Amino acid sequence: MAFEQAFYTSATAGLSGSRGFQFSAASPGLDQAILSQLLPYAQYTVPPGCSPRPTAEEIAHFPVALAFHRLPGGEAVLLRSKYLGTDDSGRSGNFFTHFLVSKDPSEFTTRMMHLLAWEADFWQEGNPQGHQQLAPLAGAGAIGPAQTEMRIAKACDLLTSLVDLVQFENLINCFQTGLNPQRRLIIAAPDEAVAMMVGCLALVLPNNLLERLTFTTYSRNPDRSDALICGTAAGSEFALGAGTEPSRHYLFDFFAKRFPKLPQNTLFARTITRWYREKDIGRLLKFKGFVDRVNIAVEVGQLDHLMALYLMYRSLELPPTARMPALRFFIERRLFRIPQLLDVIINVLKEQAENSGEAARALQALYQAVRDTGEIDPIQTERLRQLLEQRRPQPAPSLDPELNTEALNVSRSSNKAGDALALLKKLAGSGDGAIPVRELDSFFRTAWPEGLIQPDDALALAGPLPKVILRSNRFVESAVNGLLHAQDLLASESGSITSRMLQILKDLESSPLHQTLEDGTRAKLENCLKLTTWMADFSMYKSVNQQLASVQETFATLPTRNHSSRSQVMGKAILRFLTAQGKDEALPHFLNNLRKIHEPLMWDRLGHTLQQLPRNSVISVDAFKILFKFLNDAHRENPNNGLLETIYWEYLMTAFHNLDPKIRKKIEAELAHNARWTEWHRQGGGWLSGLTGWIRRKK
């Protein structure tokens, strides 16, 4: 990322063409219209009661104004203003304001700039080059994960030492209740304390709220500032001593110990404050990661729902009253697209639906929404369906009255396969053909109306009665559907339920019964059995196009909801790419083509694969160069993607350091003149050793 810059101070020469306070330098991207909008934010007024000619020691204690604002055109501005004392002519009252400006506000949220900017090393307090034209600042705030975590730990220590955390909790609560309609928060406290409160709040906010969190750590008169959170000094010109709390702001006066009186604080405020009190940096970062992964625009009033979902997701304590509102939020915002979160919610609803009509209605709404998407893990969808079926009867077709009555009973049973087997054994008697095929098809259509029989149920039926059960086209089709959804379909172990059921169906291919199946069922069976050798077959494909075609065909065969098997296919393809040798002209496009097949899964598996690579791994030099360019391009296109951010800065760097040293040297030699590589390697190269040292000190 790169930011346009501007300096404002008292200077003998600057952009105005005369001496005095002015913009002394600016980047070419900042025209006069934008500079005029920056001007009101450039001013600095000394705190009340200060000497007109303060000493250097006194100046060192003047508050620093770190601020974040939005301009009318949508630009975002991060600035730092500091009192200097005298200017070049010896006049008192000089200060220096350094601006960073971006047309994309998200650039200030990508690396938690609000928290990390307080001690950032890119701030200037003068113009060291004396130039009036400034180059854009590249890489501001772009530090590695280890340094980020260490700075957050330091901020946590500062917060707990400088601030009464009871009032920090109250501050978060006021932010939640006051943002809509906008009600400002005025904080009378030392500048560093204000910076830590703002930064520690910003750390846990969704990015869309973070972009609205305008603030300044110091203003002599908050009435003249439009920041949502405004810090001020003791003895401020603001009416700190007013007897009645104005309706337009909340006042936190840490000097006089005057704070707003509010109802019981929110779940979000209580939980976040507890983590800061316990200095649980890992939990704070995991929550931020969860928020980034959910990646939806959240209104401030929905933060409690987001926190409740996280607590459920991590099996942490949650007030019962927060559960159902969060579940409704989960369904309304369609967050069931996150498989692990959906699995947690299913378990919660299962516990609730037994005694709660509201939970049962939520269960129905969730199942309907999940089914409509067609993208959810079938095992989870089936669990939802079974929960619903326990609460409502199933319609039954009417062929043989006795058989279909029993089939309906089986559909409601918790032991479907066992009850079905007992009934079919009884009806079959000693003859294999005692039950007409039409009746068998009707039976399975009624007992398993969704057309999917899980491998354990299918094996329990086909194993004891293969010559009876396998006569039913409906059973074979439903059993194949169950196998296509099996998580271990591509790599089933010998003797497992999946492998045993697959063997029964392989034997069926050479049986006369195979010819009685419908054409569509035979084709589906053949495709299913073909998948069992996919792992070995894929290793034999030499060209990149053959590999891509195989992945594409496999994804077309596997149900969209078989997340596990699809993950295995994607992971195998990525691992094959990383070890690819030679100069196949299609290789540079391999990852982009995988991205087109299924982008979310490609990112997930790529991150997992890089994270799991062992030390002294062997990745071809060509593949690594392509991988680096691919990730660098993607990161520049999507700077706010939390998963991509982690893959690019953490997993890729870890994978690089885990490479065989000879391969690492070849990569460094071939990319030595690549500017993007140099920047990435410089900014992230030190984080690994920093992380190791930090962990060692913590132990």
Portion in helices: 40-55%
Beta-strand residue percentage: 5-15%
Largest sheet: 10 strands, mixed
Q: Report mean pLDDT, rounded to a whole number.
A: 83
The total of beta strands comes to 10
Helix-and-strand structural type: alpha/beta
Q: Helix segment count?
A: 32
Tell me the distance between the termini: 35 Å
Radius of gyration: 32 Å
The outline comes out as: elongated
Structure summarized in a few sentences:
By secondary structure, this protein is α/β, with parallel strands linked by helices.
List keywords for this structure.
699 residues, elongated, alpha/beta, disordered C terminus, 32 helices
Describe the protein's topology.
Elements: E1 2-11, E2 20-26, H1 32-42, H2 56-59, E3 65-70, E4 76-86, E5 92-102, H3 113-116, E6 137-138, H4 145-162, H5 165-178, E7 184-188, H6 191-202, H7 207-210, E8 215-216, E9 229-232, E10 249-253, H8 267-277, H9 281-294, H10 303-313, H11 323-332, H12 339-353, H13 357-373, H14 378-389, H15 401-412, H16 416-428, H17 437-447, H18 455-462, H19 466-469, H20 473-484, H21 497-509, H22 519-531, H23 534-540, H24 544-557, H25 563-578, H26 590-597, H27 599-612, H28 621-637, H29 642-657, H30 661-670, H31 675-684, H32 687-698
Parallel strand pairs: 7-9, 7-10, 8-9
Antiparallel strand pairs: 1-2, 1-5, 1-6, 3-4, 3-8, 4-5
Helix pairs in contact: 4-6, 4-32, 5-8, 8-10, 10-11, 11-13, 12-13, 12-14, 13-14, 15-16, 15-17, 16-18, 17-20, 18-21, 20-22, 24-25, 24-26, 25-27, 26-27, 27-29, 28-29
